[in-house]
Amino acid sequence: MLAPDDIYISPLDLNVEQGRIETPFKPVMRFGTPIFAASGTAAGIVALNYLGQRLLDAVRRSAVPISDHLHLLEPRGYSLHGPIPNDAWGFMLGSDRTFGRKSWELGSQGTRIRVEICHNGRGIEEQDAARLFEPFFTTRAKGTGLGLAIVRKNLDQHQGSIRLHPNPPRGTCATVLLPAVPEKAEASTSRRPLAQLKS
Predict the structure, then answer these.
(1) 146-185 residue pLDDT tens
(2) Which helix H or strand E contains 72, and what residues bound it?
(3) pTM above threshold 0.85
(4) Is 53 helix (H, G, I), strand (E, B) or coil?
(5) Is there a contact between 81 and 56 (Cβ–Cβ < 8 Å)?
(6) For a tag site, which of 16, 96, 112, 177 has the least CB within 10 Å?
């Protein structure tokens, strides 16, 4: 029960109507304060909904130079705003992906190291998949089309590879394979004289 002059402020989350999350998503904050009659008897509550997208937009505008690296998190580490829009609102959408819990896996395949990174977002359109590693190909309005091309070139220079594949029921996984350096060979290389390492 709110006392006189108390104001309730809810966490920022998604608007829910009749038990279902409203779509398109509408971030909201709720404010409430009690109303009392002259006799001191509680007469009701004034409740206001604030469209939280205005707040998120203001945060993004205030950090334009780093907006593509900015993460706004709620107390448990779930994303409210970040570089990957599909990560947002996971606490309301049944996702366990928080800022501190990365969807990645490290394993080995014989003499190769495998790193797999997955997300559960919209995924990649089939017609785009074959071209994603082409220089200057992009599906983003402000994209350069160089990111994945540079990744593949660097992996090629290290005898590695990268493959994109579906992450059922939705999303995409990127599997990176890199050659593993045997421990003895690595130790032997580290003990070589500097002159030999430079040659």
Answers:
(1) 888 898 999 999 888 998 888 777 778 888 888 876 555 4
(2) strand 72-73
(3) no
(4) helix
(5) yes
(6) 96
Q: How far is it, in rounded angstroms, from Cα 80 to Cα 100?
A: 14
Residue recorded with tokens 């091309």: 149
Inter-residue contact 74 to 12 (CB < 8 Å): yes
Distances (CA, A) of 92 to 82, 155, 157: 16, 37, 42
CATH hierarchy code of domain 104-183: 3.30.565.10
* Model confidence pLDDT, tens digit, residues 64-120: 777 667 888 888 888 898 877 778 898 998 887 777 665 555 566 667 888 878 777
Contact 171, 153 (CB under 8 A): no
Contact 67, 60 (CB under 8 A): yes
Q: What is the pLDDT of residue 7?
A: 94
Domain(s) labelled CATH 3.30.565.10 in the chain stretch across 104-183
Place of tokens 């509680």: 42
| Cα 146 to Cα 149: distance, rounded to the nearest angstrom | 5
Exposure string (b/e) for 93-112, b if CB count within 10 Å is 16 or more?
Answer: eebebbeeeebeeeeeeeee
Pairing of strands 16-17, 72-73: unpaired
Instruction: Identify the burial level of 30 via C-beta atoms within 10 angstroms of its C-beta, where 0-12 means exposed, 13-18 middle and 19 or more buried.
Output: middle
C-alpha Rg value of the chain to the nearest Å:
25
